[in-house]
Amino acid sequence: MAGTPRRSDAPRADAQAERDAATSLGAPLLEIEAASVRFADAAYPALGAVDLRVAVGEIVCVLGPSGSGKSTLLRAVAGLQALDSGRVRLEGRDQAGVPAHRRGVGLMFQDHQLFPQRDVGGNIAFGPRMHGATREEQHTRVAELLRLVGLPGAAGRVVSTLSGGEQQRVALARALAPSPRLLMLDEPLGQLDRSLRERLVIELRELFGTLGTTVLAVTHDQGEAFALADRVVVMREGRIAQSGTPLEVWQRPADAFVARFIGFDNLVAAKVADGVADTPWGKLPVPPGSPHGEREVLVRPTGVRLVEPDRGLACTVAARTFRGTHVSLALDPATGPRLEAACTLREAPAPGAEVGVAFDPDDVVVLG
Amino acid sequence: MPIARNAARTALVACAGLFAVTACGSGDGADEAQSKQVTLVTHDSFNVSKDVLAEFKKKTGYTVKVLKSGDAGQAVNQAVLSKGNPQGDVLFGVDNTLLSRAVDNGVFAPYEAKGLDRVPAEYQLDAEKHRVTPVDTGDICVNYDKSYFADKKLDPPRTFEDLADPKYKNLLVTENVATSSPGLGFLLGTAAEFGDEGWQDYWKKLKANGVKVVEGWEQAYNEEFSGSAGGKKAGGDRPLVVSYASSPPVEVLYADPQPDEAPTGVLTDTCFRQIEFAGLLDGAKNPEGGKKLLDFLIGKTFQEDLPLQMFVRPVADDAKLPKLFTEFGAEADRARSLEPEKIAENREVWVKSWTSLVVK
Amino acid sequence: MTVPVVFFGIFFAYPVAAIVGRGLRQDGAWQFGALGEVLGDPDIGQVLWFTLWQALASTGLILVVAMPAAYVFARLEFPGKSLLRAVVTVPFVLPTVVVGTAFLALLGRGGLLDDLWGLRLDTTVWAILLAHVFFNYAVVVRTVGGLWAQLDPRQEEAARMLGASRFRAWRTVTLPALGPAVAAAALMVFLFTFTSFGVVQILGGPGFATLEVEIYRQTAQLLDLPTAAVLTLVQFAAVGAILAVHAWTVRRRESALSLVDAAYAVRRVRGTGQRILLGFVLATVAVLILLPLGVLVERALDAPGGYGLGYFRALMSADGGAFLVPPIDAVANSLQYAAVATLIALLVGGLAAAALTRRAGPFTRGFDALLMLPLGVSAVTVGFGFLIALDRPPLDLRASWILVPLAQALVGVPFVVRTMLPVLRAVDSRLREAAAVLGASPWRAWREVDLPLVRRALLVAAGFAFAVSLGEFGATVFIARPDNPTLPVAVARLLGRAGDLNYGQAMALSTILMIVCVVSLLLLERVRPLSRGAGTAGALD
């Protein structure tokens, strides 16, 4: 069970069964094989022999810190960045030598890159116009897309007067307008405020579901990736660190890097043997079937349970942070590094309080 | 860089189109037209009446194409540079200050024009080889503002010496000899008058007497000279200017209404004579037409057209001067001249010493 | 890239190399003796020194005087703005012979300063410097203003919100953004003043000589080709050094800027500061530019029988005698030549700028510099170079009219490149990529994305190229050409003759040249991008 799951048709545990059924039938739309790109003065390749397949109708989200090569990946698929080696196939056809404008993919840029000298309608109509749509068709398409992104009647507005959220919607409409076979989004919600982002990500997922669009998005925000994607691909220094459904990645991060990147900080070195991990925090129970030996062990905050002060690992509450649905506690244990715990508001002790900590084996993960 | 390549292709097509147009534009390149055309290379001041050219065409069947560039010096220099592969068939506008340069560089092919017997021998500076044919003469003389001297009840100066007379202090304006043709002519006149060494002393006196030197004839005549229309508007305050003997008649011709008397006069004893020549260019594509054109240039029609077109005097003795010249013009009295060889030899040195003497 | 390279190869590098080579090769062997001889001459040293320092001083002075104007024309709205912007460009096209005299009316005997304070500046270096300001004012106003008008004012606002004073915000945000345009303008002004010819002659008098004057004398008057060749090389070296300094200064300065439509950055005049600035600029323009031009017009109207259009009427007839055709025909000639020259300049310059935007490397930088060289090389060198270089089929263009617009375009191209390049480089390349993924081919992307953004710069460039061509005198006069004079040539010929009518007609024709220039520039300004806010239909075309 170690390593990176490679199932492109992983079912999601939510109400998308119908869609997922369609996805699992889909042939690969995009196949990337051993794609490599190296920039002249970089320490490691922007893309190091990356393999990735995206099925028709699938939403794949590439997650990674800045500099991990995720934008380069999109640019390579779009034909804006030449590969040093490897290949990109779309619907089975090798795209080597096919210029960007003939690939039939859409790309929504990080900061939207709306054409400043055109109004909203002009921006959205650009793609259809390039594909030879008549004026009438352009009109229809613009109106249709503006309705779709929730900005009906905005065609005549000047781009520079739009708010960030509106720009994002226009950029999306523009990218969708030529009906690309693959839509790529580069940090689609990057510059927006949190609440808007959370709302839009749901809208996007619904929209793509309705349209059946195949999507390859990149982001550095794990929340965004998990909410949007059928499958998450975590990248690090030009290589794929893990690929899987959001649930898989969340439940079983492939390594410490992935774990930290998706927000888990309770990581320690451990010696695992016979269902027990020997850590600085003491002996932790591990799920059956966990690998043995010198390993890193992750404890999800939800698996750090507060018990009576005189039981379990003795800790002092260093800080507590309200997270809306729960409270996040920073605990300084008697031994070992700081621990993060999650608990309900009612249970939350005040900073300075002495507590005991026990570990739930279901939330202890021995990393591969 | 596909875009650059695409655009380049478009541009190449456009360029090709442009050159096609060019070729058409200079479409006299067609052989047939070529033989019927004779090209005259000359300076920017060249001018001729339309009917005169029409008469040439009627007589010989040749159309004249005129190519102009810059002043006389430039026209000659261009001829020297394109020696052997000339721009045209005939060069007009070599004066005696430039003659040696043109002739010594082998720009011209010899041809004795028909009707040369009507031209006084003194103008035929290349009488043995006939590489050049004299066409006209013009005198560079000091002009004066008649009303200034009348108002001041002062007799205008008469000679070179007078110009250095304190009576006429701060009255003369002349041109930079390094760049201006009348300026150089005036210097050569003083050299002819006072000798190779003597002219420097004379100019020292002129300088002490407040001679003003400006860059070109346009500034001297139109800005500084109080007798010209431009000078009056610009508040020019110099009543003496180095100009041409023909300037007073020109003042009359281009006044509206025409006055009874020229507003300016000529100091006839301060003149340097320029003789202007034409010659058949060596390597001319149409030497036959060129020869016909040379004959025509000293023919009566062209000679009588000259004065009112270029304000010079004809060389042919049968050419009548127009009334304008006889009535308002002045004949140079003992016009100075120097042999072309001597000018060629000393020109650069003289210009240099003049510059350090007068300007610096 | 090919077209500009070929163009410059054939019409600049080859002719100039030919004439220099002719000078340095005697009897089939290279003669470099002249090199030491000429360079050792203290007079030449003096000329070089004067040429250099007056050019630097002029450039500095122009920047100081014209930068506020660039701001005012770019950012403030006031009545008569576009007319005034066209008018300040007029000096640029007028032949120095003409304007030099008009400028004397300001600085010389009986001039304004003489009347007021008994101060006469003619034959001083001040006259030269001020006249250079007069001639090159528009270079700064248009080049810098063109970019300034499109800079996003919010950046400056952001700096002010961060606690910067108005001036500090300008200095730390706007000025660096303007850097490339300022450097470009300064470079062009420097090259123009470095090769200044007429201004130095007329206003400075024979006491001052620039390298350009010396080259003209050696080539056109004395036919001392070896000396001329050495001087040309010296000029090359000096200009080359300046270009290198320029390239070094602006490298990496041209970055993607946040550009907006000019209309959004324009503000109504507000506050004392802006009023004072506007007042200062208008006063400068009035004294330095309108006054001398006014003198010209006044002289053109000052006919013998009292003020009237007498001289203008005389222009309509061929009886004047200076030409075979009515002098007014020169207007049509000039417009035709200028139109062709502008097209060539836009084509060559536009392609060069596009190529320079997309490529980097030493070759490109070298080519960038090469494009500027024509401004720093004597017109007589180029004119005579044409004569000996383009003399054999298939390129025997010596007798062709096309040489004139070609020579004019040579001077226009640097303007096109310099005005377009900063803006083109400022266009975010991701906008092009956005167009590409939406299905636009590179050429289409250029047309759809770059062109609309640079349209304003393109118009500025076209205006310059057109104005330069209209007023170009030096190269035109050195080229043997069929007898259809351009306006400046016609003016010069009229001025070269005595007589009231000739002088008056010269002034009248200069006035017409002014009007032609203003009208052409105003028409160019009218060709604006589509009016915005017109809805989808407008943007969809």
TrEMBL record, chain A:
| Alphabetized GO MF terms | ABC-type quaternary ammonium compound transporting activity; ATP binding; ATP hydrolysis activity
Annotated ranges, domain ABC transporter? 32-262
Q: Which Pfam families match?
A: ABC_tran, TOBE_2
**Keyword flag Ubl conjugation:** no
Q: Name one GO cellular component term.
A: ATP-binding cassette (ABC) transporter complex
The record's EC number reads 7.6.2.9
UniProt-listed SUPFAM superfamilies: MOP-like (SSF50331), P-loop containing nucleoside triphosphate hydrolases (SSF52540)
Spans annotated as Disordered? 1-20
Q: Which UniProt keywords apply?
A: ATP-binding, Nucleotide-binding, Transport
Name of the molecule in the record: ABC-type quaternary amine transporter
What organism is recorded for this protein?
Streptomyces albidoflavus
From TrEMBL, chain B:
A single GO CC term for this protein reads:
outer membrane-bounded periplasmic space
What Pfam families has UniProt attached to this entry? SBP_bac_6
Q: Which GO terms describe its biological process?
A: thiamine transport
CDD domains (UniProt xref)? PBP2_TbpA (cd13545)
Which GO-annotated molecular functions does the record name? thiamine binding; thiamine pyrophosphate binding
- Gene3D superfamilies xref list: Periplasmic binding protein-like II
**Keywords, A to Z?**
Signal
Signal peptide per UniProt? 1-25
**What's the protein here called?**
Thiamine ABC transporter substrate-binding protein
UniProtKB/TrEMBL annotation, chain C:
Q: Which GO terms describe its cellular component?
A: plasma membrane
Please give the PROSITE patterns that the UniProt record associates with this protein.
ABC_TM1 (PS50928)
What topology does the record note for this protein and the membrane? Multi-pass membrane protein
- Record-annotated membrane-spanning stretches: 52-74, 86-106, 126-151, 172-205, 225-248, 276-297, 335-357, 369-390, 402-421, 457-480, 503-524
Domain ABC transmembrane type-1 as annotated: residue spans: 48-244, 331-524
Task: Give the UniProt keywords, A-Z.
Answer: Cell inner membrane, Cell membrane, Membrane, Transmembrane, Transmembrane helix, Transport
CDD domains xref list = TM_PBP2
Q: Name one GO biological process term.
A: transmembrane transport
Q: Give the chief site where it resides.
A: membrane
Asked if the keyword Transmembrane helix belongs to this entry, the reply reads yes
Please give the InterPro entries that the UniProt record associates with this protein.
MetI-like, MetI-like_sf
Q: Where in the cell is it found?
A: Cell inner membrane; Cell membrane
Domain of life where this protein originates: Bacteria
In terms of PANTHER family, this protein maps to: INNER MEMBRANE ABC TRANSPORTER PERMEASE PROTEIN YDCV (PTHR43357)
Instruction: Give the family this protein belongs to, as stated in its UniProt record.
Output: Belongs to the binding-protein-dependent transport system permease family.
Descriptive protein name: Iron ABC transporter permease
Q: Which organism is it from?
A: Streptomyces albidoflavus
